Amino acid sequence: MARTLPQPAREAIEIVTVLQALADPVRLEVIRELSTVTEPRSCSLEAYDVDISAATLSHHWRVLREAGLTTTFVDGRRRWVELRRDDLQARFPGLLDAVLA
Amino acid sequence: MARTLPQPAREAIEIVTVLQALADPVRLEVIRELSTVTEPRSCSLEAYDVDISAATLSHHWRVLREAGLTTTFVDGRRRWVELRRDDLQARFPGLLDAVLA
DNA sequence: GCTATACTTCGATCGTTGTCAAACGATCCA
DNA sequence: TGGATCGTTTGACAACGATCGAAGTATAGC
C-alpha cells in the first residue's frame, strides 16, 4: 500500500457534499458493498454489482473520495478503497448507519 | 387547512430520492428551519433565510414534497409546510436526526 | 526495453436541475 | 365585480453531472 490519494481532512468534510455523493444509485450501491467488509476492497469493476464502464466507476470513486466518504490506496497497478467510517461517525454521528440500514 | 397536496405514502419513500432532495444547500436550509418548529410553517419566501426567488422556492417545496420529506397544506391563498418526521423516522430511523445535527 | 495490465483522464454527448421573469390561477375583500 | 395578494406553473437558459470510448499513465513481469 504505497500511497493514499488526496482526500479532505475530517473537519473539512461537508454535509451537503456527502449527501450529494450518496444521492446517486451507483454510488449508494458501492458504498453499501464497501460497508460489508472492514478491510480495504478492490477498486475494480468486476468486484461490484453495477452495470457501468470502468471509466464511469473510476469517476464515482473520485467523487466519493473528494467528498470524504472513502480513502483510496494505491499499490502498484491496483487500487483499494475503504469507507471512512470513523471520520464520518465523528463528523456526522449516525448518518452512515441510517443511510445503510 | 382545506386540503393536502399529493405526496408519496410512507412505504413509497425511497432513500435515493430523499438523499437527492437533501443534497441541495437551499433545501437543506429550509428543512433545517422547518425542523425547529413542530407546527406547520408558512411556505412564503419571507419566512426563510434564503436568497432566491419565490418561483424557485416553490420549486424546492415541490421537490421536497414529492420526495416524501414534507407535507403541504393549502388554506386559501396561503400554504403551510410540515416535516414528515414520523414517516421519515419509521422509514429511515435516525436519518433526519443525523442530517440535522 | 517491451508488452500486457489496471485504472485514470480526456473529450464529447445528453439528460437533469436550479434559476428567473412572466403569465397564470385561486382566493380574499372592498 | 373588480382589484390586490399569494403562490404556482411555464418557458427558457446555463450549469452540472453521469456516461462512454479512446487515449494516456504508471507498474509488473518477462
- Largest interface, Cβ cutoff 8 Å: A-B, 17 and 17 residues
Distance between the termini of chain A: 31 Å
**Strands of the biggest beta sheet of chain A: in what spatial order?**
1-3-4-2
N-to-C order of helices and strands of chain A: EHHEHEEHH
- Named at the architecture level, the CATH assignment of chain A is Orthogonal Bundle
Helix fraction of chain A, binned, reads 40-55%
Largest sheet of chain A: 4 strands, antiparallel
The strand count of chain A comes to 4
Organism (chains A, B): Amycolatopsis heterodermiae
Keywords (chains A, B): DNA-binding, Transcription, Transcription regulation
Domain HTH arsR-type (chains A, B): 7-101
Protein name (chains A, B): Helix-turn-helix domain-containing protein
What are the key terms here?
homodimer; 101 residues; alpha+beta; Arc Repressor Mutant, subunit A; 4-stranded antiparallel beta sheet; 5 helices; globular; DNA-binding; ArsR-like_HTH (chains A, B); Helix-turn-helix domain-containing protein (chains A, B)
Give an overview of the whole structure.
- The structure is a homodimer of 101-residue chains.
- The longest helix of chain A has 14 residues, at 54-67.
- Chain A has a 4-stranded antiparallel sheet with strand order 1-3-4-2, covered by helices on one side.
- Chain A is globular, with a radius of gyration of 13 Å.
- The first copy, chain A, has 5 helices and 4 strands.
- Chain A has 101 residues and is of the alpha+beta class.
- Chain A has one domain (3-7, 14-100): Arc Repressor Mutant, subunit A, CATH 1.10.10.10.
- Chain A starts with a strand and ends with a helix.
- The mean pLDDT of chain A is 97.
- The first copy, chain A, binds a DNA duplex (30 and 30 nucleotides) through helix 3.
